Known about the structure:
single chain; 502 residues; two-stranded antiparallel sheet; disordered N terminus; disordered C terminus
Amino acid sequence: MSQTSADTPGTAAVSTLPSTDPPPRHRWWILAVIGVAQLMVVLDATIVNIALPSAQKDLGFSDGDRQWIVTAYALAFGSLLLLGGRIADLFGRKVTFLVGLVGFAAASAVGGAAASFEMLVAARAVQGLFGALLAPAALSLLTTTFTDARERAKAFGVYGAIAGAGGAIGLLLGGVLTEYLDWRWTLYVNLAFAAVAFVGGALLLKRATRDRSATIDVPGAALVGGGLFCLVYGFSNAESHDWGSVATWGFLVAGAVLLAAFTWWQTRAARPLLPLRVLLDRNRGASFVSVLIIGAGMFGVFLFLTYYLQQSLGYTPIKTGLAFLPMVAGLMLASTLASTALIPRFGPKPVVPLGMGVAAAGMVWLTGLDLNSTYATSILPPLIVAGLGLGLVMAPAMSLATAGVAAEDAGVASAAVNTMQQVGGSLGTALLNTLSTSAAADYLVGRNPKDPAVLAQAGLHAYSTAYWWSAAFFAAGLLVSVLLYRRGVPDTDPDAAPVVHM
């Protein structure tokens, strides 16, 4: 038996101290409660994507602004995730978990009732904020509830499966709710998830002793949050102000300066949000970069292919959700194959670059889609190829990003890898949306913008531009992973702390 430690965000660290407390009698019910909360947080990264065309039509926001519906959630969630774990340590996991649920539900209700674009974006950002409280608290509760090694392995397996399937469930559920009810129900549905998890958590979870030694790195949180916001906002501004405008490059420079200051501060802070020793191993560094690139490319695919299917081909929301499932199936199949067979035999150096190359090929294939493309012959094959490539990268990169860390760093490594994925999604969505809308505007120069056929071709040109740039991201990822990953099979530590990715 082992006792978990909660020194770090989203802690999954295990010490060698014997556990003095018997495991909770209702621990499997507690797993169900934590699972419901985790599902709510994960599916919210994708559930709104399918509803975006309907929300845009209802609220009347522009193509340049639509990415903020996705980015506001991912940016707030990713940039505050490291901080959320420290708050859970400081105020207690149960209290943080319940507050996170209430805040997430309230933000969802406001978003569902949004009367304007600004109101919806604000609600999505607040969702991300409370999600950043909720996710690390849920993970810490899982590690302290299951103290038996065998039971903990089963619990982490269930939790990981929920995290992996949440995106696919979000796509399908988003389609069902948008088509049969209204796009607003993709947000209202969170009230049901939160209510179930809150009642279960209030009844079953025990208040634990707070870690009174925990401190919050406020300067670090301000620097990394401000830096990431400036980068995303700068990329977004390029669509309306062009790259030479101070509103574009000024924010990009400010973001780079703030992130450099964050890096410097992490070497000085007594309890840093992200100890740099976590990043400095070559395999871990390569994995963090790979996760960042995968997040950028994958979020872009979901956004632009959703618009293509619904606006160019006239798919219903539920048909759009179903259309993505083969891609998710390919991703899960390749992830399992990479984790169980390829990495243990060959190591990451051939596998991750292969995945990057396959994903890039899938993106290039998607650039050939037009108004007459059929799903079975033109859309399904590149979707499956892209999914297989993403899977070959995602599982090894997420696993190796946390492999070999000291027990006291396991939680912060887990939070950091999830932060990289969300930040990659935020930056990728902002940049790809700017590039695609600019491409559409350039296409319309000298053409009749009121002609439906011209507008349809402009849309295709915009989507194709996004796929080409996604392919470029993955090509860069191929180069980085070839250069950085070590040859050979990585060493494994049988006593390493279990880490789960959100």
